[in-house]
Amino acid sequence: MMRLSATFTVDLLPGEDLPAADGRYDLSKTWTGDLEGTSSGLMLTSGDPVTGSAGYIALERFEGVLDGRRGTVTFHQLGTMADGQPTLEYVIAPGSGSGELTGLQGTLSIERIDDDGIHHVSLDLV
């Protein structure tokens, strides 16, 4: 296993509502560190985050350089919050890699989020 570190900033823009979700957002990220590049994707939400109970799913395509290798991968996210307690599964979608990232597998963990919105993450590759 190999562990990489990176940061990202994210922009969320509300998108057109869909019948299967309470909210839809287009997202874009800028990555720095062991992941250098950009990603864009789609997030769907449901529930009531104000009361501490909600969930979301998201797919985002990363394009850039990961530990010196160039290509694309898709990240798949599944987040829930029940009674204010969050859980997050954040993985590289199997079979989504291209270029030098073909066949890449791994999980991403958010280590912390700074007050200015910078997300610090670790990526464990298998």
From TrEMBL:
It holds the Pfam family DUF3224. It comes from the Bacteria. InterPro entries: DUF3224 (IPR021607), SO1590-like_sf (IPR023159). This is DUF3224 domain-containing protein.
